[in-house]
Structures are given as C-alpha cells and as structure tokens.
Amino acid sequence: MTIPLDIPLKIGALIFPNMDQCDFTGPFEALARVPNSSFFTIWKEIEPVRDLAGMKLLPDTTIDEAPQLDVLLVPGGYGQEALMHDEAVLSFIRRQAAGARYVYSVCTGALLCGAAGLLQGKRATTHWTAMDVLPLYGAIPSDERVVIDGQFISAGGVTSGIDGSLIVVSLLRGETVAQELQLYMAYDPKPPFQAGSPATAPAPIFEAVMERARTITEQRLATGRAYQASKANA
Amino acid sequence: MTIPLDIPLKIGALIFPNMDQCDFTGPFEALARVPNSSFFTIWKEIEPVRDLAGMKLLPDTTIDEAPQLDVLLVPGGYGQEALMHDEAVLSFIRRQAAGARYVYSVCTGALLCGAAGLLQGKRATTHWTAMDVLPLYGAIPSDERVVIDGQFISAGGVTSGIDGSLIVVSLLRGETVAQELQLYMAYDPKPPFQAGSPATAPAPIFEAVMERARTITEQRLATGRAYQASKANA
C-alpha cells in the first residue's frame, strides 16, 4: 500500500564524519525526488562533514532540530564506528524510528541501527565485510542486496543503496514513480568487470579488499561483542 | 598503458549550482581512491554549491587556483545550461584539457565540453534526453554507456558515471585496482525494475520522463544551434 500523493512526506539522512558519501548520495538521487516530499540532511551541527575520501557535505539541519521523518536513511562507512556509543546519535535514530514509516540503512549504517537497538530479530544486510557483525546485534544476516523486514529496510555495501532507494520509492509512491526515477537516472548499469561481490570477484581481488578492511572489521566485531555482552548482563 | 604507481596523479571535478550531484558523487567514489592520487573539487568560489535537488557540496579549491589535473571530471545536470556561455568556466575546461591525460564527462557534462570546443569530431555520449544536442557541437553520438575517444571519455546519464569511473581507474592504474574498488563499492547492481533506459522502460514511463525534460531539452538544442551557427559564420 503506497501513500496517497496528497500526503506530504519528510525524508532525511544522517550524515557524519568519515562516512562513505556514496551510501548517502546514491540514495539521495531518488529519495530527494519523491513527489510531494521534503528532504533533510542531518548532523549534530550545521558544519561541513568530511567523508572518508574527503568530500565535503553541508547538512541542512541538526539531530535536535530535525522534524519527525517518514523515512530515515542511515549511511555507513568507517566513521560509523566512532558513533556506536554516541548516545546523542543513537537516541536520534531510536526517536526517529519510533515515528517513521521506514528506517533505511545502507552499508554499515546497519550497525548504527543495531547499536540503537533496532535490529533485534530483524532480517538485515550490510557491507559484505561486516556481515558477521550483524548477529551480535540480534539480526538475522541475509546476503540479498536489499532486505525488507517490516519497517526496517537495509541495503548491502555502498552502491547497493541505489537499488534499495528505488525500492523505498516504490513503497512510498508506487512503481510508476520509481521507474520514472530509474529512467531519469539512466540506471541501466553495465559494470565493466565481474568483481562486484565476493562471489564474483577473482580470489586475489577478494583477499586484497578483505585484508585492507581487517582492522576496521576487527573493531566492528569487538564493538558488537561488547554490545552483546552488555545485553546478556542487563 | 597504465601509469606507473610511483607517478602521483591529480584528479579533479568541476561542481556547479544546479548540477546533478550523482554525476559527480558516483564517479568520486572510485576516482578519489586511486592509489597515489589527490582529488580536488572545484568551483568559482569556495562556497557551498547546491545541486538540483538541494544537496549542498563544498568545493576544495577554485577554477583559478586548481592545479593542472591528470583527469578532469565534468558532471552535468540542468545547471550545465547556465554555464554554456560562461567564459571563465569554458576556458578552465579548455586549459585543463590541454594538459590533462583524460577529460571525463558524465551526463550533460558532455555539452559543457562541447561548448568548450572539445567535441569536434569526437565520439561521445550524454544523457539520453540530450543525445540530439551532441552533433551540434561536432560530436558523433553513441548510445554506448561509456565512450572512449582518445583523451575524451564520456558516460551517459547520471548513474552511468559509476561504470565510466571504473573504466577511468583501469586506464590510470590497471584492472586489478579497478576491480578492488568495484568490490569495495559492492558494485554488483540489481536494479529492481526494467526501466533504466529508453529501450527497456515501458512506453508510458518513457513518455512521462521525456515530457518532464522537454523545456530543458529545447533550451539545450537552441544553445547548440546557436553554437553551430556561430562556428559556421566564423
């Protein structure tokens, strides 16, 4: 059941230092064009946010001043790890989730949602390097590219956020709107190589990328284990 | 022939008001991660640039202060039309092109390159709504998703910039590096609908998107015809 077009929608994204910009900018392309909607880019302060690779984004509003959203987009990237005990951010996610139609995580944004307590018993996905972290937050990991479990929608690594955003649009305003946006975006992808997933990448490519992510993956696992232990003791 | 890894590379993107952010942010994801390279985001002033749908991006440097680049990325979007007679921007593109290894246009960024005089006799592509504009700048239009003609590389609409960026990376640093980035980006796309190109979209979807672009398309054609006429009279 989509939402009647005369009901305006508020859609917003958390952005943060050392995020992966594409987790946000990919979905923005479709989500900011949903008919009869407003889009809010949100961080703690209205100051430039520098992504992992140095892109500078400017938020529209703050986590304290953002309105209740219909859809909250939570991107990921290495910087997610610094927010896993940030109560201001986690309570923002929790508060928004309580009133939102959908929470949509991309990449390791799912781990932030996990730390906020949203993943208990939910099917979810994340970047393939972080898949083993999901169960520590009570989630049931899935290697689908986009997973819908009730109010919680998650997309896998980075560019999967584009696929998921078109699904979110179709849930909000129907398939015709989503298809029109797909055509506007010329989203008829032709990857030049067969290396986009652990299943298709040549083994040395897989090993190199895995190795490069080792430190952050170990941190994410340690943070997840500490979360799990704290819940077991509570 | 790729470039030896010990030779540092400078890669940069022009950004501008009412651009389509995804033409820039999609390619940024891979281009800003090229080993031994620096990335520069460039506009006339170091002030926030607001994209067509309201995303705010902050440039690193200006067209007057940017160094000679090895790769210049030229994105598109409706705002391209306002720059088609902007001599400061066009001479920046011309000057950079004269010293760059590659000029890489995404979407209607190709038209800016055309106005700068770079497309004469070149095979090129652009957003499908603007394909008929290309010949007015002396280009030979192609409906391939990514076109390489010597120093000039062009990608089609919006998301095709991601495909093209991986090709640019492979030209610069080789296929292994490009494949590692593709895996990091989890670029194994699964579009949820078959509507990403004029050839695959249902007819009513095609007509709706075409109709929505009618005004800007007519402007682009008029600008192109005026360019062609000025060259014929020159």
UniProtKB/TrEMBL annotation, chains A, B:
DJ-1/PfpI domain boundaries: 11-163
Database matches in CDD domains: GATase1_PfpI_2
SUPFAM superfamilies: Class I glutamine amidotransferase-like (SSF52317)
Source domain of life: Bacteria
Protein name: DJ-1/PfpI family protein
Organism: Paraburkholderia acidicola
